[in-house]
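#help-structures

NK: newbie question. if I give both the sequence and a SMILES, will the prediction place the ligand too? trying with zinc ion
OV: yes, paste both and it writes out the complex. here, I ran yours:
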Amino acid sequence: MKIYETHAHLDFDKYDKDRDLILKKALEMGITYINNIGYDDKSIIGSFALADKYPQIYAAAGFHPHDATKYDEELVRKYAKHPKCIAIGEIGLDYYRNLSPKKIQKKVFAEQIKIAMEYDLPIVVHDRDAHEDTLEILEKYMPKKVVFHCFAGDEIMAQRVLANGWKMSFTGNITYKNNNLHGVIRNCPNDSFFIETDSPYLTPVPFRGKRNDPTKLRYIIEKIADIKRISPNKVAEYAYENSIKFFLPNK
Ligand SMILES: [Zn+2]
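OV: that's the protein plus ligand as structure tokens.
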């Protein structure tokens, strides 16, 4: 089984003691690519340091809506040119925590969309409780390559995302009770989804509450297989091919 982990934050110091071991175990289970995603200045620098060190790690540069007030355009532009940059992200809107004023979140999101288009890079979107504004801003610019990381919309929103040619990424929250994404997953075409852990967050059942890591992708793969009634191998294969085409089209 070949697996592409499309969203993790392994630069966090929580992994300093066992990062090598986690990456070794991940490789052993077939995880041949990992996208490490930046969200502020420190994590962008940390993500690209990992990409420089480990051949299987690629990185994304962007300022998360929580950190929109700290937006540093020069830094994003600098790393957008890095040979292992696979996307601008994670960028978007977060009206759940509202750690930055909405107006600034929107402005910084739009500016980074323009950078992604200028450098012809995909966009990794963070959208929490901000579906309508997120879609509205993206639809104003209509970038070609967009993925909604940890997709959390309903089936109507999913249809709108798919109609624009964009992708959805599923993470450990799909294993939680009361999760309402089963219909979205069942109806998502096999060429339009990716898988991710969002490590260290969103740890799947049965490890919920503990630190997450990419090897736990197996529980997400199994859950999608269960919902779609196809084999886990097929889920991993579709997600892998979709991810390569999207993030590493020259591989
Ligand atoms: Zn993330």
